[in-house]
Amino acid sequence: MITTDRTIQKIEDMASTDFSKLLGNEKIAMGMVSSVPAGIYSKQALKYLNQWNAISSQVIQADNVRTALQYLLSRNVVFAIVYASDAKLFPELKVIGIFDDFTHDPIIYPASLINLGSEEADLFFKYLVEAKTLKVFEEYGFLISARD
């Protein structure tokens, strides 16, 4: 959860936070909860924390995460829920809380080769798993999971 308001305190425990009190009369932007992955995960987390029903009327749904960010950056909303990797791109934003992983489905970006005869695809895949490439992903907030 992010904001542009530097006076808002960091949330130490999302599970004990009263989101309707936090939001007051303000709006919160997130991806569309029926079709945008970030919105789907956001709704799952809020439902897990029993907060969705209390604030759903204050949710401004965007067609993608970058649009939700733009609503926040343009100060049309005071809060937004986006991926940590997107929030890191804008130093003027303040991360006030992070949902625990168990509050929503795992966020996974799988990669695999489907055309084993393609030299270009093979080179690109090898590039993706190089240590220096993985370091860049980590710098932007992605966690690396080694799976076959």
Describe this structure in words.
With 148 residues, this protein is an alpha/beta fold. It folds into two domains: 2-103, Periplasmic binding protein-like II (D-Maltodextrin-Binding Protein, domain 2, 3-Layer(aba) Sandwich), CATH 3.40.190.10; 108-148, no CATH class. It has seven helices and five strands, in the order βαβααβαβαβαα. The chain has helices at residues 19-23, 37-48, 52-55, 65-73, 84-87, 119-128, 131-139; strands at residues 2-3, 28-31, 59-62, 79-80, 94-95. It has a five-stranded mixed beta sheet. The longest helix is centred in the first third of the chain and has 12 residues, at 37-48. The mean pLDDT is 92.
Count of spatially separate domains: 2
Structural class: alpha/beta
CATH superfamily of the largest domain: Periplasmic binding protein-like II
Give average pLDDT, whole number: 92
CA-based shape: elongated
Low-pLDDT sequence parts: none
Q: Mind telling me which CATH architecture of the largest domain this is?
A: 3-Layer(aba) Sandwich
For the termini, the CA-CA separation is 32 Å
Helical percentage: 25-40%
- Topology order in helix (H) and strand (E) letters: EHEHHEHEHEHH
Features:
148 residues, alpha/beta, D-Maltodextrin-Binding Protein, domain 2, 2 domains
Quick structural gist:
This protein is an alpha/beta fold and 148 residues long. The protein is built from 7 helices and 5 strands, in the order βαβααβαβαβαα.
